[in-house]
Structure formats: structure tokens, C-alpha cells
From TrEMBL:
Domain of life where this protein originates: Bacteria
Gene Ontology CC: one annotated term: plasma membrane
Subcellular location: Cell membrane
Gene Ontology terms for molecular function: ATP binding; ATP hydrolysis activity
Example GO BP: peptide transport
tRNA processing is among the record's keywords: no
Primary location: membrane
Homology family: Belongs to the ABC transporter superfamily.
Protein name, as recorded: Oligopeptide transport ATP-binding protein OppD
Gene name for this UniProt entry: oppD_2
Span of domain ABC transporter: 4-254
Amino acid sequence: MPLLEIKNLRTFFRTKRGIVKAVNDVSYSLEPGKTLGIVGESGSGKSVSAMSILRLLDENGYIESGEIHFEDRELTKLSMDELYHIRGNAISVIFQEPMTSLNPVFTVERQLSEPFIIHQGMNKKQARENALKMLYDVQIPNPEAVIRQYPHQLSGGMRQRVMIAMALACRPKILIADEPTTALDVTIQAQILRLMNELQEEKGTSIIFITHDLGVINEMADDVAVMYCGQVVEKAGARIIFDDCRMSHPYTEGLMFSIPRIDSVHEKIEPIPGVVPHPLALPKGCKFAPRCKYCTRKCMEEEPALTDAGNGQLIRCFYPEKEVRRSAEHKKITVNQ
């Protein structure tokens, strides 16, 4: 049974130009002790779908409809007071940029002690002891000195480790990691990913890992949801997504072809043409149709449903079979050549 299940979630934002449908009919689930990777370009709705779980939205954002089930509770029905007991306690977040997420005027000790004081009722001395232990757990060198420092005195990698320590302080059942390695160099990124894997194995935490980096997803995720224009266009196990499977969404295929590979140095990288459409001017049919090299007239006029392709793989495409859409017959009916 899933630990977290999102059903037909719609999260919208009111703007002066109209309603932005940032997340439009999104469904996915997270199994206990597993990692769900959510991947897609900027503006695809990855972060908004995850932040909707705890209602961490801007003032103009709201959940239009849908269900979010966590254990035996329906989170969209809870009051804000009830939700406060879940935030940071049962479900925690590692935000994308640690420099803006940590308060620059408070020490690491002050900020890392807060979860223990607020959620677990500890006094300041107990909270400091536990905060120090968390810094040891995330492998920060010389934690006795670091705990007295301010965020600006730490490197990017150290700040991110402090954020991970804060997120894991109350031993949450779910950790939402919103592009936690984007601003880090590759060496520090590898260390952070290894640390998260070790902490997950030790504490049994389930993780929602949001990123645009398929290489990171390949290393971290058990299951993958690929998002585009506020919709899930493909869902499958990581093994199915990254193996040379028989079926896939053209967007997933495009993401694969647009990254360099060590095992195929002579292959040309193929970027996805065009840009993500403006959320207030989405195309009529398939949202990916204007950028898809396999697009047909049907794709431009009708919107495909998310259908079962077998092996637990769901694909939102009229032509999910790779051989079919690459065939000479299919090229005769494509419109984006």
C-alpha cells in the first residue's frame, strides 16, 4: 500500500492575465522506503505538485481539486493547524537553494534546534545536543564550530548538509528534495547524493526527488514520473525508463537524447527543439505536439490520455511504441518534419 498517493491533483494560480493551471490532473504514488523521481524541464509543474502536498504555495496559489492521501489522512481536507503538525514532523522538505532557505541572521544552532523545540517539545539544551548529533549524521566536519556559525560563513555544500539535517531532524516518513544539488559542483553533488542514500537506508525515509537531471534520477530513483506542462506524460519504474524499452513518451526520449553519455561518445546530442509553451497559451491537443518530431494532425487536435502500456508503465501518447513512430509509414503522416 502506498505511503503517499496523489489523485487527479489540480493546482492553479490566479494572475492578472488569467488562471495558470500549473498542475493539471496529476496522479502519482510513493511507496514506503522508496524514492520517486519527478523529472522535467523548468515550468513543467514538478515543484508545484510536490509543494501542494503540504500546501506550501504562494498566496495566489490554491488546490482546485484532487486528493492527497498520506497514511489514513486526506491532506487537502485538513485545516492549517492540523497541517502544521505534519510539516517538518512527518513530511519534510529540502528546498532548492539553501542560501535563501536558511535565515541569514540566525546561527545554525538556532535554526537546527527549532524542529526539536517546536515538534518534539525539547528544551534548548536537549535541542542543541540533538542538533549537534544531526550535524555529525550528515558528515559535517567540526560540527561544534559549525553549529555556532551563520549561513554566509558556510560553503554551498555545507549549507545543503545543514538543510538535510533540518529536514531529517524529526525522522520524517517522507522527504521532499526539491532539486537539492542544482547549485552544487559535481563533486559536492555526488557527496550529497551518497549521503541521502545512506540516510535513507539507515532511517527508512521515503523520498520524492525533484530534478531536471536524468543522470541524478538514474542514480537515486526506484520509480519515475516525467512531467510536462503540468501533466504526467510517463510513469514507470526507473529500470524501465532507463533501459532500452520498447515504449516511451517522445518527451522522455528527447530528454534521454539531449544528455551526453560516457558509453556513446560519438553519438550526436539531440536537443529538444523549441521551448515549453506559456501556461496561458497551451496548445489544443497534446501539449508536447509543437516540439515533437513524431507529431501528427491527430496529436495537434486531440489530447491523449495517460494509458497503461504494461509492466506498470503509463504513457500519455497516441504513438508510444518506438518502432512504430520511427517507421517510414509514420513519417508520411507527421507534420513537424
